[in-house]
Amino acid sequence: MTRLSRRAALKGAASFAAFAPFTAACAPGSVTRASPMDAASTSGPAFVDGVRMAELIANGDMTALEAVDAAISRAESVEPQINAIANETFATARETAEASPEGVFAGVPSLTKDLMDRKGEPTLYGSRGFEGYVAPADAPFAAAWRNAGIVSLGKSTSPEMGLISSTEPVVTGATRNPWDVSRTPGGSSGGAAALAAARVVPFAHASDGGGSIRIPASCCGLFGLKPSSGLMAGNGRGDSPVDISVDHAVTWTVRDSAALLAMAQRPDSDLGPVETVRGPSTRRLKIAVAPDSGTGSPVDPSVRAGVEASAQLCRDLGHQVVDFSLPFDGAQFVDDFLLYWAAGAAAFAQQASEMSGKPIGPEILETWTLGLAASYQARADDMPAAIGRLQAFKAEYEAMFEGFDVLLSPTLGRPPVPIGEQDPQGDFDAVMESVLSFAAFTAPMNVAGAASMSVPLHWTDDDLPVGIMFSGKRGDDALLLSLAYELEAAKPWIGRVPAVSAS
Question: What residues act catalytically?
Answer without folding.
Answer: 113, 188, 212
